[in-house]
Amino acid sequence: MNDSSVSLSFRSDNVATIAPEIMSALEAANHGLAAAYGDDEYSALLNRKFSDLFEAEVTVFPVSTGTAANALSLATCARPYGAIYCHEDAHINTAEGGATEAFSGGAKLIALPGPNGKVEPPTLAAALRHAERGIRNRPQPDAVSVTQASEYGTVYAVEEIAAIGAMARDAGIHFHMDGARFANALVTLGCSASEMTWRSGVDILSFGATKNGAMAADAIVVFNRELAEPLSYRLRRAGQTWSKMRFPAAQLIAYVEDSLFLRLASHANELASQLGRELAAMPSVRLIAPVEANLVFVAMPEPAIEGLSAAGVRFARRGGGVIRLVTRFDGTPAEVDQFIALVRRLIG
Amino acid sequence: MNDSSVSLSFRSDNVATIAPEIMSALEAANHGLAAAYGDDEYSALLNRKFSDLFEAEVTVFPVSTGTAANALSLATCARPYGAIYCHEDAHINTAEGGATEAFSGGAKLIALPGPNGKVEPPTLAAALRHAERGIRNRPQPDAVSVTQASEYGTVYAVEEIAAIGAMARDAGIHFHMDGARFANALVTLGCSASEMTWRSGVDILSFGATKNGAMAADAIVVFNRELAEPLSYRLRRAGQTWSKMRFPAAQLIAYVEDSLFLRLASHANELASQLGRELAAMPSVRLIAPVEANLVFVAMPEPAIEGLSAAGVRFARRGGGVIRLVTRFDGTPAEVDQFIALVRRLIG
Amino acid sequence: MNDSSVSLSFRSDNVATIAPEIMSALEAANHGLAAAYGDDEYSALLNRKFSDLFEAEVTVFPVSTGTAANALSLATCARPYGAIYCHEDAHINTAEGGATEAFSGGAKLIALPGPNGKVEPPTLAAALRHAERGIRNRPQPDAVSVTQASEYGTVYAVEEIAAIGAMARDAGIHFHMDGARFANALVTLGCSASEMTWRSGVDILSFGATKNGAMAADAIVVFNRELAEPLSYRLRRAGQTWSKMRFPAAQLIAYVEDSLFLRLASHANELASQLGRELAAMPSVRLIAPVEANLVFVAMPEPAIEGLSAAGVRFARRGGGVIRLVTRFDGTPAEVDQFIALVRRLIG
Amino acid sequence: MNDSSVSLSFRSDNVATIAPEIMSALEAANHGLAAAYGDDEYSALLNRKFSDLFEAEVTVFPVSTGTAANALSLATCARPYGAIYCHEDAHINTAEGGATEAFSGGAKLIALPGPNGKVEPPTLAAALRHAERGIRNRPQPDAVSVTQASEYGTVYAVEEIAAIGAMARDAGIHFHMDGARFANALVTLGCSASEMTWRSGVDILSFGATKNGAMAADAIVVFNRELAEPLSYRLRRAGQTWSKMRFPAAQLIAYVEDSLFLRLASHANELASQLGRELAAMPSVRLIAPVEANLVFVAMPEPAIEGLSAAGVRFARRGGGVIRLVTRFDGTPAEVDQFIALVRRLIG
Known about the structure:
The structure is a homotetramer.
Chain A: H1 20-29, H2 41-54, E1 59-63, H3 66-77, E2 82-87, H4 91-94, H5 99-104, E3 108-112, H6 121-130, E4 140-147, H7 158-171, E5 174-179, H8 182-189, E6 204-207, E7 218-222, H9 228-237, H10 246-256, H11 260-280, E8 286-287, E9 295-299, H12 302-310, E10 316-318, E11 322-326, H13 333-347
Helix pairs in contact in A: 1-10, 2-10, 3-9, 6-7, 8-11, 11-13, 12-13
């Protein structure tokens, strides 16, 4: 019943299937009874598995969407009169319908510019320096949020994260990472999950799994223990505490088991890398940002873009002759080849 | 890995499995690509199936929990300074962590008394009569919410619903039904889904499926079309709009396909009925409320309650020697027999 | 242009004038320039005067209404998922349009019964005992609020306040006092302002002055220093930080100077006492609550109530043949005599 | 007790006194009783006076601050998921502690650039064109807000306001005017109050009086009748409905009586005009924005700025050698002369 007629889609990683290993885990979990609302054994195991993965005792809260993960994390980090620093193109600022403002009771997102969708440490430093602390009619610094990989498919180096983490610590504010494409970034950096997060100062993480093979199981991973309890109440009251928690827990356990998440992300990244390499080599096509995860932003002549659309290829348009291509864990090199061939024909 | 050692649980319908038909539907949906955020064909089919079921053009929004369904429905029905009438034991008033207050921006729940967990029409009428409309420092009537089946496992008759619906219409307020156990009530009444809802004046319904066989797929069903658009924004901003919407949609389609939901509920209701009948016949055991769905409230001597606990049986205690027993679609008559035999032994 | 035709009003203390001493203070403050938003010398003096009055270093925030004082105090004391215990007839629960729910982001008022408008310590103790701490879907105890004098014109003894204060401390929750009629209660108790507040465990006080002679100057008095800073931000963002702060500050300084507030309240209390005494002595008239401040609640035959209305007397009706009479600092014994004579005639 | 030692302050119009006519009106209102919460005769007269002034039937709500006026107006205009367009330097965006976000439940301010603190109609048109209506994860256009006079002391021409009003009407959004310095702008334009507001499409106005001679009486003036009722509830619940409403009403009546507000503003504007003219004529001093109200922004050499500070002159610094000077209704030409002489000496 799905879009089977569409041979070629680079529209989004949200159109993907569920990875077979995760579907199997759902089936395996569907036996016997299990306590509700997270008091089950799957949830306990989930916390252990993630504590192993992150080499620290963490608390994991499965949630239904990345928006919930981001907004409830940030609502726990920021006072209603607080300021949250983020990139101007951050998903929380542009594409979550004001969820962070809603859950926080009206905290202010301070949108920072920066090349390739990344907050550069000096930009943040300047913003924090200009924050008017103690001035009652100004928002008060409470958190910084970075997206890893970013909305442009670029990846913060560990040193960049650590620099932001150090600033956050010095400023006494919380550090949130929107990891909607956490696995894609981790594969690129080749570092440990802990280096990319708490060892670099991250307090709380939106851990995305849905885009990379889960059915509906993103999670909030809490490193800073003080945040776990208030967050747990906010989740319940937000309608984000599933009654049959064993099922999202089982998905997330399978997701990290035997590094499945890294294998899935690695495959998607390779497809993007191939796409980027071949497109960059074409005349009149230009990469808009380095390809470091599973997103490719390219500028190409408008007739070529029209031609792709006419051929039934799915992708997102940005203004000014730029398109966004997203590769998926369940995509194939053949699809990339087919796309490249098509572009070649269109470019002439 | 689950509670397999526990032979006997009447703790909750949230500890249940997923019905095989629904698990199969998830597997069947896991092929090919599907548009995200509800623009997929499963979501379109879901709207058609539910429109058939309810004999009216309805809009269906899958959500992750009943709390989300209730609170976001009511936030759409009530102004921040509005009053929402409900039973004092309603889940929205006692067990959702203030979700309705949070999402509505501080609307007031007006808790009404009533036997067996039900709002009696005259009680509501009196409350509406005493509402101080136009008085700026009083909450203004905006909605009434009933739970069908109620928190005590009782069921509103169609005439009772219609009486409340008429009052709501006359008062110019919205009528919400918390249908966490919608199927259980519908089986009991034997009426049509439309009679139990919009034909009796219901504007918006929290349609529960998780307790009765789905994995994680409750839904909001909107009858009053004016509510659909504002609700859609509130859902997105609440992090309740799944990216891979085909999967909750597929669950809900399978849930109503061939009346599966009625068969599952019917089975659970029969187990409760058997439990109630046999318990009521025992000396020193007393039913606290009529058994009309899959919940049984009984008073019994404290030593018997202790004995049940000691035997490893799971159930919820209420104060004053009262316990709550919940039967499930995946429970068995043998379990009920086993429980009854045990109680008999304990009562002596 | 005012209600000069009305010879007799016991409607409310909000219909009163401004005390001449306070009007003079406004005029006196209207010379030269003064820094804005509370950085002026009047505001500094206000803090010193109130610190003297309360025998402790307090922070005073003038606000425009008692509703603002209550709701912003409580929003600072309670988390969005918190519970606030109060009497079921408390102004915050019945007559502030949901202000506390709004400013707190949806905290829950737990309404407790109690004779004469007062929360009895054992009732609070039981409520705190039954609070389901740590249960994620229940509101979590954060504050208790008492009204001194109460909505029934009764007054908590110092021992009662101290008992509640001790419970609040033991439970780790904040203690708020709604002192809309603080002076009237203080006169009745004859204790010090500190005994009636922080020495008995009060953390934060809504200090009413408007009803007792100010123009528009209630205040929040903060005893628990941790609350002052977050409150200051909430006030500014609530539009409750006056730019020309010298004028409310000047009113409040004059209000406590030379114990003016006690003299004004004493006068109003005496009028109420006289009213109560004479009414209680009449056949078929009955006091509903002890007269301990400037409010008198009496039951009398419906024809007498009608007769009072017909004679143009202003007062508030409660249900069931009960009326509320409020005396004011600017009322006169002659008015009370006139009223009593009228009732006598009506009762026959 | 005030800043009498300071001979020279151009710090703010919030440091000013109360105009004698307004103080007299307060005294005159302080006789007899008056109904509370706006049911008094002063409030009725206020509505008539303002309806005359604006040549239309308007509803006036006195509030304690401009922040309350702005935030509650906008909360009434915008849905929680709405977008409010304003200049990036608008007070609502930079200096009200997030009040609009708080009262609206998290609406989004869309900050637009524009020379001299003004939103240019084409900029707004482009923003509205790019608004993604119907896209659930984007804020939905609900209101536009302009500041008249602007934060830079510039004034929108009637044609500019009308152009924005026409856009708002076409876009189906509300039009709010922040008139903290309404009188100053009106004097400059020389048009009628109706031309500057509803005849040009304004739905709701924050009418400032405090900066221009009132004690504490700003007001919301509602032209679009649909907004009046919901606003009245929001005000009460925000603690912005004074009990002794006659006093703010009396201030506002006196403020517009015999065009007092225009005379006061005219005086302040003339002082600013004089300041601007003389400063602009000096070498190495440069006006940053045209002087059209009572604000003067000038760049001057840093040593001159230091010299002014050293001499005890009060003013606000902006970055980059720019200072802001504010003239007041109670300022004098002699003070301006003195200031100019001082600058001349410092510039050399």
